[in-house]
Amino acid sequence: MAALRKMLGDMNGNAATSLMRLIETQSRETLTHWAAAYAKEQYLPLIKEESEIFHQMEQTISAVEGFLNKEMTLKELKPVLSSARSAAKELADSRAADPVTLATARAVSTACAAAQTPTNALGFLLYGAAACAYHSAGLTETAATYDRLAEEELQRALQSLQASAVLDEPHPVSIRWNC
Q1: What is the pTM of this model?
Q2: Which residues form the Imm-5-like domain (predicted)?
Q3: Is the confidence at residue 1, as pLDDT, over 60?
């Protein structure tokens, strides 16, 4: 049995490097829209049974959607993002949290925070890869199994971002990767 990690994914792997190159070509708005939609579709369903954290993450995604629809400002969104981050931290601090629930909460809160920090458009996927791997394979698999599942998840995310990407985006984000 491998020790469970809070993030999964090879930053030097094909999927991660392709994601980084593609993220660099997109605007903050495009990345935020994609990250929130991907988290809502792929990760949020993993915690449907955990009603309290599910509703908090669902509300955070709704707030980001409101921000993207110009119904609220970034200044108004920031406390919602902070609250989601705090909820994920409280789960981690409890030490009794299910690893799938914890990784999912981290993934969703980080995806939503792409509105503020564009590099989160990659970071949330590493938490999401852990959530998906632990959800599909259980908590007693080998590191090699988790790594394979994480790479598959990053490939799915890459395909999703490629489908959502704006060709010749006029205002791409400026990112300096620290990984």
Answers
A1: 0.95
A2: 22-155
A3: no
pLDDT band, residue 118 (cuts 50/70/90)? very high
The DSSP code sequence of the chain is -PPP-S----TTSHHHHHHHHHHTTS-HHHHHHHHHHHIIIIIGGGGTT-HHHHHHHHHHHHHHHHHHTTSS-HHHHHHHHHHHHHHHHHHHHHS-S-HHHHHHHHHHHHHHGGGT-TTHHHHHHHHHHHHHHHHHH-SS--HHHHHHHHHHHHHHHHHHHHHHPPTT-SS--------
CA angle (124, 128, 134) in 5-degree steps = 155
- Per-domain residue ranges of the chain: 27-164
Q: Could you give the CA distance from residue 72 to residue 83 in angstroms, rounded to a whole number?
A: 16
Burial 27-49 (b: 16+ CB within 10 A, else e): ebbbbbbbbbbbbbebbbebbee
